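Deliverable D2.4 — example input (structure tokens):
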């Protein structure tokens, strides 16, 4: 009798050992009883099976990250490119992922490759480089149709890299350089146009007040002199020279004729220093009106400084 009890205990322990299964939190259990799938999916935790009758297959329901190998194709605008992508998906119906498809991971990989080649042929190069959001949505829609029948949910799909031929890279670089040069020329021309408009407006304002031109001239002289140049060119009004000439003629007309001197005296007078002529022209300079200083036609006069 004790031997029978021991045998029953051993059989019970063996039964429990063969019938108990542990399902992890990130898994779901699909039970087959005599080859037929049970409708209820075993949840995470401890579950019991009938030995030699039930068989359980565990299905991972975590998000699976699957890199899609690079696919080479020709875009809509006849450019050869190589594009690779990455796919994120997870199982939401373990029974269908186990029964309806033999290997859902391999099936999703093949569908992703064919969809990627298809989207390359339907898109242009600019869309692959800058408009990827629309391509991502298109790829997701193309993968969603077969994935629903396999109990798989597509979380997202993204294009990782677009490889271009070297000749196309050089052409794009030249195009970008030409576009930048065009924008630079447009900006320069626009700046010159605005500067010309401002200069025309300033000239119109200065024409109303001639004294402003003289003030601007003096300011320019100050700016040039600040650079310590050895030569400074100043515009000298021609009207001022004419005024000096007329003043000298008027002074000569009012001067009484002197008696004729001897040849030796005339030679001495001819050799008189130039200070006498400058002293005679000083009253004329003092009497020059202010309007003469604002003459419009200048004549350049160079003033050279002696080096120290």
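Example output (designed residues):
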């Amino acid at each position: 009798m004790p031997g029978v009890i021991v045998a029953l205990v051993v059989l019970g322990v063996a039964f429990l050992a063969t019938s108990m299964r542990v399902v992890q939190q990130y898994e779901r259990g699909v039970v087959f009883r005599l080859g037929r799938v049970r409708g209820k999916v075993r949840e995470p935790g401890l579950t019991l099976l009938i030995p030699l009758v039930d068989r359980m297959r565990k299905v991972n329901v975590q998000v699976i990250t699957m890199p899609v190998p690079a696919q080479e194709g020709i875009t809509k605008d006849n450019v050869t490119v190589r594009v690779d992508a990455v796919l994120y998906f997870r199982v939401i119906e373990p029974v269908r992922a186990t029964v309806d498809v033999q290997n859902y991971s391999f099936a999703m990989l093949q569908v992703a490759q064919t969809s990627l080649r298809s989207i390359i042929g339907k898109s242009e190069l600019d869309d692959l480089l800058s408009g990827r959001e629309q391509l991502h949505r298109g790829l997701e829609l193309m993968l969603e149709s077969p994935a629903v029948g396999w109990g798989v949910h597509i979380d997202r799909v993204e294009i990782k890299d677009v490889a271009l031929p070297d000749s196309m890279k050089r052409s794009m670089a030249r195009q970008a350089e030409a576009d930048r040069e065009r924008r630079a020329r447009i900006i320069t021309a626009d700046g010159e146009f605005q500067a010309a408009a401002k200069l025309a407006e300033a000239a119109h304002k200065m024409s109303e007040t001639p004294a402003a031109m003289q003030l601007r001239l003096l300011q320019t002289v100050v700016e040039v002199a600040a650079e310590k140049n050895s030569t400074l060119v100043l515009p000298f009004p021609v009207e001022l020279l004419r005024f000096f000439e007329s003043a000298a003629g008027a002074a000569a007309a009012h001067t009484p004729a002197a008696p004729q001197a001897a040849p030796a005296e005339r030679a001495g007078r001819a050799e008189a220093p130039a200070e006498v002529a400058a002293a005679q022209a000083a009253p004329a300079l003092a009497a020059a009106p202010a309007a003469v200083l604002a003459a419009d036609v200048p004549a350049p006069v160079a003033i050279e400084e002696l080096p120290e």
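The two ends are 135 Å apart (CA to CA).
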